[in-house]
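Reviewers of the previous submission asked for a worked example of the structure-prediction workflow described in the proposal, so we include one complete record here. The input consisted solely of the amino acid sequence. No template or homolog information was supplied to the procedure at any stage.
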Amino acid sequence: MSLTLGTGPLARPSTGQLNADLWSVAPAHALYLHPLQERIRGILGGRTVVDTTGAVMLHETGLLPRWYLPETDVAPGLLRPSNTRTDCPFKGEAHYWDLEVDSHRMEDAAWSYPDPVDGCPPLAGLVSFYFEKVDTWLVEDEKQIGHPRDPFHRVDARRSSRHVVVRVSGEVVAETRSPVAVAETGMPVRWYVPETDIRDGVLEPSPTTSVCPYKGVATYEHVVVAGRRYEDAAWCYREPLLEALPAAGHRSFDGEDVEVQVGA
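From that input alone, the workflow returned the following structure tokens.
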């Protein structure tokens, strides 16, 4: 899914080849820090708690990438030292901070490494926030959902004329010559079928939703075949983000007894 997850080169992937033995010299646990270009703001209780153009992103083996923001760009007086400490063998001792804005108090909302261990990228003077402990994150003037987007992660949604057949428990529930193929870094290609090419009566509403920072908010549906309900076997991005826009309103299928056959 990124440099450090899935098939990424810093995740020790089982597939793909390099022209050198990277892992004979690279550490088992890799850290990569690089600057970001965008303005990033965090808002809690209607107040801007951090506003910076000096953010950096830390990639770390097996973990999602994280923003680290200059402590000097956090509004004065909002971060209060916490007694919490944790130790990371690759970064050092983390000191935690409570975030307090008027009546809003978020315990251990952020952390920093004031004295990183030798070999760690330069994290001193930077602070990272738990994404969910701030009401709203803005990148430039657009709201960021889910978690910070990895600039090395890519989503491509392309219209296709390939023959796609979806079967659930052996029964055809969808068939199309107008699918949308969504290719995403580190993930298998997902095929999205227009609603008009889905068999009537097989979809049933589900309360389940999920958030993808690259595609948007997905709503789910159960698939009902021969009296049996397959939970959350279909999903749809009704108002996708730009990268997934061609798949708007289409459904993709996966799960128990689901087979997606793709032909020429």
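The mean pLDDT is 93. We consider this example representative of the routine output the project will generate in years two and three.
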